[in-house]
Amino acid sequence: MKRFEVSATSQSSLIPEFCRAPALLTLAYVMELIAVLLTLASYASGEAALKQLLVLSLYLHAIGLCCAGALCGVRRGLPPARDGVLFFVCWMVIALVTFAVSFTAWLIDRRFALGFVPGDGPWPFVLRNLVMAGIVALLLLRYLWERHQWQEESRAEADGRYLALQARIRPHFLFNALNSLAELIPSKPEVAEEMVIDLSDLFRVSLDSRQRLIPLREEIEIVKIYMRIEEIRLGDKLLVNWEIPDAVLDAQVPRLTVQPLVENGVLHGVSRLRARGMLHVIARREGAFLVVDVENPVPPEDAPKRAGTGTAIGNIAQRIKLIYGERAKLILGEDRDEFGPLFRARLRLPFVVHSGGEINAPTFTED
Question: What CATH fold (topology level) applies to the domain 158-366?
Answer without folding.
Answer: Heat Shock Protein 90 (3.30.565)
